[in-house]
Sequence to fold (1046 residues):
Amino acid sequence: MTFLSYLISGISLGSVYAIIALGYTMVYGIAKMLNFAHGDVIMIGAYMSFCGTSYMGWSPLMSVVLAIVVCTVLGVTIERLAYKPLRMAPSLAVLITAIGVSYFLQNAALLIWTSNPKSFTSVVGGGAVKLFDGQLSISHVTLVTVLACVVIMVALTLFTTKTKMGTAMRAVSEDKGAAQLMGINVNTTISVTFAIGSGLAAIAGVLLCSAYPTLMPTTGSMPGIKAFTAAVFGGIGSIPGAMLGGILLGVIEIFSKAYISTQLSDAIVFAMLIVVLLVKPDGLLGKHRNEKV
Amino acid sequence: MKKLKNLSPSTRDNVICYGLAAVFFIVVQAMIAGGLINNSLKGQLVPICAYIIMAVSLNLTVGVLGELSLGHAGFMSVGAFAGIVVTSSLADVIPSAPLRLAIAMLVAAVCAAVAGVIVGVPVLRLKGDYLAIVTLAFGEIIKNIVNVLYIGRDASGLHFSLLEQGFELGEGGKMIINGPMGVSGIQKISTFTSGIVLVVITLFLVLNLINSRAGRAIMAVRDNKIAAESIGISTTRYKLLAFVVSAALAGMAGTLYAMNYSTVVASKFDFNTSILVLVFVVLGGLGNIWGSMIGAAVLTVLPELLRPVRDYRMLLYAILLIAMMLFNNSGIKQRMLDKRGMKQMEKLEKSEKGGA
Amino acid sequence: MKKILSMLLAGTMLATALTGCGAGGNSQDAGTNADSAEGDASASAAVFKLGGTGPLTGGAAIYGNAAKNGAQIAVDEINAAGGAVQFELKYEDDEHDAEKAVNAYNALLDWGMQISLGSVTSKPCEATAAETYSDRIFALTPSASSVAVIDGKDNMYQMCFADPNQGTASAQYIFDQKLGTKVAVIYKNDDVYSSGIYDTFKAKAAELGLEIVSTTTFTDASANDFTVQLGEAQKAGADLLFLPMYYQPASLILTQAKSMGYAPKIFGVDGMDGILTLEGFDTTLAEGVMLLTPFNADATDDKTANFVKTYKEKFGETPNQFAADAYDCVYAYVAAIEAAGCTADMSAQDICEKLVEAFPTISFDGLTGEGMTWDATGAVSKSPKGMIINNGAYVGM
Fold:
C-alpha cells in the first residue's frame, strides 16, 4: 500500500513536470531552441492567476484565462523582441538570449510582487478521492493535472498532424528554407508556436502552484530545469515523449527518495537519466536520425 | 596595427591573447602602484582570473570541440574541494603559500581530469542536446555528492565519509569539508599574480593545443565527424582529449577561486554557475579565445558597475545581456562595420585622389 | 579589417569597464572627502556610515529585504530623534553568495563604511566576516547564525541565536515539556542554517535520550514534494515533527501533511516565524505549531506595536524576525557607541577597537529580547521564547 501511495505521489509530481515539459518540447520541436525562459513564463502565469483570484476576487476559471492571455502575449512579445532578430544566428546565441530573458522576468517579478512568497490558492479545490477505505488518496489537483496533460498531449498531436498550421509547423521544423520556398510564412509559424507554448506555460504554472502552493519570483526555475530534463528524457521534440518523460521523472524522484536515500535523491534521478540516455541516445520516444555526410 | 594584420590568423590570435593578459596585469599593477584602484575592483581581480580560465577552458569544449556542456561548474567544484583538502593538509608541511597553491592546483587538475574522464567517456557518445543534458546531470550529481561529503584531518591522517560524519577526530583534529556546511575558515592564499600566471598557463596550453595537430583533428571532428573518421582520425580519442583538458583547467580555476574566499559551499558550483560561464563564452564568440577572456572580464565586472542603480541592478544586467547578444548576432554589428568600412574606403579614395 | 574593428570595440568595452571601475571609485572617494569636509564644518551633523550586505535579489531575497527594511526604520527613527549618534545606512545586494558578498562589502568600503551590519545569511557572512576581521571593521550581523561566522573573530558579533543554541534549546524544550517521545526530523541538507540546527539537535537528543525515529532531507531541487518524508515519519510512528527550516517549505509540509491525514505535533525554529503572515496561507493549517522565536509581531508591547505599524505603513507587509533583528542591531549600535564614546569623525579602525571593548559590557533591550548581553566571542545571550500558534496568533507557552 505504501508502494501504491508513493506511486501516486510520483505520478502527481510527474504530471506537473510533464505539463511543463509539453511546452518546452513544443517550442523546441518547431523553433529548435532551448527556451530557458519557459520556467519563468510559468512563474508569471502563476502570479497572474494569483492576482486574479486574490486581488481582483475573480473566479479561478477567469484567473486562469487571464494567466493564459497574459502569458500568450508575453511569449509572443519576447519572441518578437529577443528571439526573432536572431533567426539567422547560431542556436547557442539564442540560448544565451533566452537566459537573459529568464533573468529579466525573474527580476521584473521581484520588483512587481516583491520577494515575499505568496501562498497560492488552488484553482481546483483541495479535496481528494479516497480509495481502499481511505488508505490511498488521490488529490483532485493530481487528477486535473493528469487529465490536462492527456488532453493537451492529444490536442497538440492532432493540431500538428491534422491542421494546416500544424503541418506548416512540422515543415518549418524539418527545413526552414524549404518551408519558406513552399510559401509558408516561417516567422508567423514560429510566433504561433511561441504563443501556444506560452499559453501552455500559463496552465502549467497554475497547476504547479495548485499542487505545491508556494509562489516566489524563482518558483519557475527549478521545475523548469526538471521539466527540460524530462523533455530530453522522453526524446526532445516528441509530444508523447514529454508526457512520458515527465511522469517517469516524477516517479523516479519519489521512489529514489522513498527506497534509497533522501540525501542523494538528486544524484540518483540524474544518474538514472544518464543510464537511460546511454541505452537510448535519443531519449525514450525520440526519433533517431542518421547522420549523413 | 598593420603588422598585426599581416600576421597569420593563428599567430595574431595568440598575440592578442597574451597581449590582453599582459595589458590587464600591467594596467592593474600600475593602478595599484598609483593608488588609483578601489576596493571593489581589487576584490574582483582573482575571480576575474578564475572566470577567464573557466571561460577559456569551456571554449575548448563548446567552441573548438563543438559540444555544448552545461556542467562545467562541476569540474570547478571538484578542483575547488580537492585544492582545499590539499592546502589545508599541507599547511604545516609547506609554509610557502605560492608553492602550496601550485601543488594544490596540480592535484586539483588531476582530480578534475579524472572526473573529466569519468564523465567524458559516456557523455561523448551522445550528441547535441542529449550530450548537453547529460553534462548538466553530471554537474548536479557532483554537487549532490560533494554536499554529503565529510573530510576531516587529525594526527593520524585524513578521514573520509559520505552521508554523515562516520568518524571521530582525534585531539587537535579539524573538519576540512563538513558536508552541507561546506568549508569554513579557508586561509586565503590566491593572489592576483597567481591568477594571472594561471591565466597565462591556460592560454599556453589551450592555444598550443588548438594550433597543434591534435587541435586540427579536434576541429575536424567538430566540422564533420564522418569526414574526419574517414581519414582515420579517432573521434573518441580527440573528443576525450579536448574534454579532459578542459576539465583539468576548470579544476585549477576552482582551486584559484576557492582559495580567494574564506568559505565555500557545494551549492555555489551549480547549474547557474555553469550557465554563467557559458554566457561568457558565447558572448565572446565560439572558438574565439580572447573573446572569452573579454567576455568573462566584462560580465564579471558589469553587475558591480551597476550597483548605483540599486533595485534595478539585475534587471538592467539582464537587459544589457540581451542587448549585447542581439548586437553581436543580429546583423546590427555587421551593418555598422560595413558602413564604417565604406566610409574608410571613401576616405582612402579621396586622399588618393588628393595625393594625385 | 572587420576583425580588427570588432576587436577594438571589444577592447573599448573592457577599457570602459576598467576605467569605469576606477572612475567610479574616484568619484566615490571624492564623495567621502566631501562628506568628511562637511563633517568638519559642523561636527554635530556628522553621521556614522553603516553598511550591510544581504540577498536583495534571487531566491533568498525575502531575508535580505526584510533586514534592510528593518534597519532602515531604526535609522530613520534615530535620525529623526536627532540624538548625538546619527546614521547613514547603505545595503548592498549579495545574492546569497559568498563571492558577491565580498564584492558588495568592497563596494561598501569604497563608499566609506565605518561600521558594518555584516551579512544577512550565514555563508556570505562567513566570507565578509573574514574581510571585516582583516580590515578591522566592527560588524554585528542581524541573522547570520552559524558558529563559523563569529569563530575566532573578536570584532564579529551576532544579534540572533547561534544555530547550535537553537538545536540544543529545541531538544531540551521538547524533552522538558514532554512534547513528544518519538521525533521525526525533516531538514534541508543543502542549507547551512537547517543542517546546522539539525546536527546539534541530534547530539542533544542523543544525550537526553529523546528518540529520533526518522530523519529525512530535501534540497532546493526537490523542495516541492514532501510526501515521502512525511510518509516515513508517519510509518515510524512519530508523534512530533521537528522542522528546522524557513517557513516557506514548512508551509508546504503542513499542507501536505494535512492532505495525508497525518497530524503530529509540529515544532519549529525561528525561521518558522512569518508563516502566519504568508500571503494567501490558510493559517488554520499552522494551528498548534510550536516554535522557539525571539520575535513576535503580534506582541502588544509599545516597542513592537510601533515597529510593526511603521513597517506596515512603509513597506505594506508584516515584519518578520529578520527585520526585527536588523532593527535591534541599529539600536544596539547606538547603545554601544554611546558607551564607547565613539564619534563619527573617527576612522573605522578606531571605532572597531572601541566597540570591541564596549560591546561585552552593554546590556540591551530590543524587540527580540530583554537584557541581551554579549560575551567576548560575539555570541548573544538571550532566551528564546516558546510560542504556540493558537487561533492564528502566537501565544506564549
